[in-house]
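May I ask for a sample protein chain and its fold as tokens?
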Amino acid sequence: MNDQIIQSIFSAAFIASILRVTTPILLPSLGALISDRAGVINIGLEGIMLSSAFTGVVFSAYAQQWFGQQTGLLIGPWLGLLMGVLVAMLMALLLAIFHLRFKTDLILSGVALNILGSAGTVAIMYELTGDRGNTSTLASLEIPFIQLPTFIKSIPFIGQFIFDVFSNQSAMTWIAFLAVFVIWFLMYRTPFGMHLRAVGENPSAAESVGIPVQRTRYAALILSGVLAGLGGIHMSMGYLTLFQRDMTSGRGFIALATPLLGNNNPVGTMVASLIFGLFGALETRLGSLQIPSMLTQMIPYVATVMSLAIYALQTRQTLRVRALRAAEGEGFNAAFWRYVQRLSLLHVLLAMVAVIGIIIAVSLFTAPNGFGGEETAHPLSLLTAFVSVALIALNFPFVRRVEDIRRQIWVSLTATVVSLTVYLGLFLTLFLAPVIAFVAAFLVALVIWAVLGGLPLSQMPPSKMATA
């Protein structure tokens, strides 16, 4: 039974599904990051995604009538993509004009855009199809899926796994993850990115040195609309091949939170989006194991609460470290507190990941028939719950008091190594023998703890405030 759970959740197919589920969250999240850093957060992402998703389906379907069956099948998906992104740009421009030109409230304008996207798509859908629920009567097309070359399978140990994860992914998924590095380069390696960040931090100072504040904010909002539009296109032409009423299901609102969880940088935003994708895929996978629907339906809400908790803890950790650093005065050691902050964030993440184990334990206990019956499911549920609670208990002291990390550095090492060995060990059993998998996980855990600052921190004298 344990093998069934591991194969169901820790598998290449599951990881591939995480990437698919993450895509429509990551793209608008990058859009929210761009607009937020410019000081004009795009609240209308949900409406933009809906409008883009609907437009893509309509134009891809009608392309077959306009250009003929053969040509329509060839250019239809890309025409739908182009027109969907164009509509997204126009809606973002509309928001920019209302806020930047006519000085309307940004939040209210964004809410109006969301209402327009939700109601407008239903109204036009009814006119075109006579249905207010979906566009199933339209022969909409899908964005092509990318196939990896089969020689990748021959790579020792990991070839088959890499092929199973990344092959047959939608082109939109590849675009989403490549966009992370494009946006990072744009923000931190180009003059536009420098202007963008300057405008968001202090528009008056930016304007005083000649940076065009209004033009930069227009560009930021339009770019955020493009990214949100790509996310919407994936929903209707990659995730599904039709448009459903309000099919984004709040992903545009989730996208507003992920940049904050990711420390307002593209890579962190990607990690935060993957966390939401993990829980979304977990909901689908557990639902396939004949678990009562109410258990799986609560997973996105648990993910949201966990994300808010991580953000709150991360903010608390940052403020605490700043206060401790300030209290050191002349004895301030920047490296010491940098290592402490890295390890404290690691302990927060390790504790939160253990919550997934508790969710699985509850599922095992309350729905044993989906896991082979009570005789198998209940003992496994208790074991999973015990391990999860133990991992939370190991990491929680360093979440509560960051200054304890140096004073109890070897306990921090133990908590990190035990937690990561469990997580990585289960993962590595996909393509290694169990003993080898857990030994490798143990070694990797040691390296991660050392690289993040555990090794140099253990060689430093405790901070004065750390012992207070």
